[in-house]
Design goal:
There is one protein chain. This protein is α+β, with helices and mostly antiparallel strands and 684 residues long. Among the domains are: 69-205, 3-Layer(aba) Sandwich (Rossmann fold), CATH 3.40.50; 484-595, 2-Layer Sandwich (Dna Ligase, domain 1). The protein is 30% helix and 26% strand. The relative contact order is 0.10.
Length: 684
Amino acid sequence: MDLRIGVDIGGTFTDWVMVDGEGNVQVVKTPTTPDGFGGVFNAMGEAAVGGDRFLSFSHGTTLGTNALIQRRLPRVAIVTTKGVTAVLTQAARGSKEDIWDIYHDSPRPSIVKPRDRLEVTERTLSSGEIRTPLDEAEARKAARILAGRGIRTIAVCFLHSYTNGRNERRMKEIILEEYPEALVRTSHETIPRILEYERFTTTILNVALIPVMIDYLEALERGLRGRDYQGDVMIVQSAGGLMGVEATANIPVRTANSGPSAGAIAAREIASLTGFGNVIGLDIGGTSTDVSVTLDGQIRTTGTWQVEWGHPIMFPAVDITTVGAGGGSVAWFDPGGALRSGPHSMGAVPGPACYGKGGDQPTNTDAHVVLGNLRPGAMLGGAMEISAELAEKVIQERIGLRLGSDPVSAAAAVIAVAEANMANAIRLATMRRGLDPRDFAMVAFGGAGPFHGARVAAELRIPTVIVPPSPGLTSALGCLMADIQHDLEATMFYGDAAAVDVEEMNARFDEFDTQVRAALDREGIPAERQFVKRTIDMCYAGQWRVFPIPVTGKMTTKSLAESVDLFKRLYLQRFTFDLGEREVEVHGISVTGTGITDKYQPKPVEAVSDRAPEPDSRLVYWREAGGWADTPVWSRPSLSPGFRTVGPAVVEQMDSTTLVPPGMTMRVDRYLNLILDTTGGGEG
């Protein structure tokens, strides 16, 4: 067994990366099948390998994301404390995705229908005291109602159960006594954190995904076992680590940001090889642009996020900023006559007009074809046909006539608008959070990332752009660069940090430490490869949005005071102001256990050459030059470490095309990355 397999299943393509014991990489890109995993086995067939050679199998999936967005979920019920079902409606957060858009619809209602929100008498105080024990007669009545309706997926969410889950546990026991076929999850076992709405929605979305994910994982495992793979199937979770099938089936909502997280891991590791610790990951696919940020070698994460606006998930996740700008994004005019791009996408079917599958709307891909950026025979190494005539026709009819311009000028305008959206996504991920993009390198990947990376970086004055060897399969490669990870967290409201009982905190930390190490033991990680990180959630008094502050070793009064100082510095960096001497509070703790895996590490190519075969050439429209230019077109597999050129240039490969605008320099490093210097300085 010498092969490590990384698979990323997207909406259009399934990406398969296979690395052998010598570090050699083989990639396969196949269409994603309707069942979600058929593309895996098709790729396995194309690679002509059996599962008996697999040392590991790591997988990034969009299954949970798509199921939540499309609401392809089972019917879900909630049992909650009497009088608080309004948490899911009137008590929900009143924010909007765009607070200035008075026409923008409010978030879609909860996936739990009003008639499936049942109440029982019980009451737990925020202190953990049980003021009112669970009324078991009401509990049994509720369980029988659910059984009569045939609702198998049930969330139990009581007030303040994060401090004492006894009433929730008893409610779960009664439901299973009355209705053994039920699938029940309580909020205190799912996410024992303060904030009722976030805790309720996280528990509901999680229990809804369990049947979906279990069916998927069982079918995937069965298919792999039938092809002689007997090892563990590891899934990339939203926080960037890997977890096994058992953990995934229990808390599947943690995979709802799986694919982009794998891409963020790959961006960090690829940039690290070239000496960069501050990294912006620009992942552009067919539908969206996903931006991740790595600062000082640490991928930035968030504690609360959402797949669908208004339905938060309160688990750690890589902090991804997403905008609807990809190869299939549609160009259109708003009521004021302004040209827009996205967020609507033509998807894989019918896709851009140039695909010839019935698409009748102008997309970014069509614009690239018109401008000569994308050669009709270049997609998937010529395996996918595209039509320049159809691209020009749709751009002219839908955009050019409205602008009163020719199709080339119209296509250039479409790309300029799309790239403005991409640049804005990076501004949101950096400048809005007190970071200067000029202090970062960019890793441009995804099928469309290398088309746009150089220009977007130049607009933001990011000096260096790195294009990985297989940009369209980089997220799949990220699956092979991740470690196993388990998280435990709890709300422990201490109030003023100066009054914290550090011995009590240390005892809870030790308890969590034992639990995460036991989980890593079950994953087969030896003790010497287990690492545990502890954090404290802090905020200023009167606020409830917390910052996780890392701590080391046993807490003391002195180290706690140092943590308070660190919180104030990070708060100032994030929000650019401080609150003076306002009291700092401790709201919770968390422990992350990491098991170091045998990750794929690219090996340098020692043979250095500054020569390459003569390039082809074609006319390409460069807006920097104000028109068409005869442009050298290089085949990427022919470029060796040490090769250098000055733009304009185009580099083609099976899974993407890289544009090097006029005046920029490009070189190939010893890891076969393309390094673009947007300043034109020549050193990359």
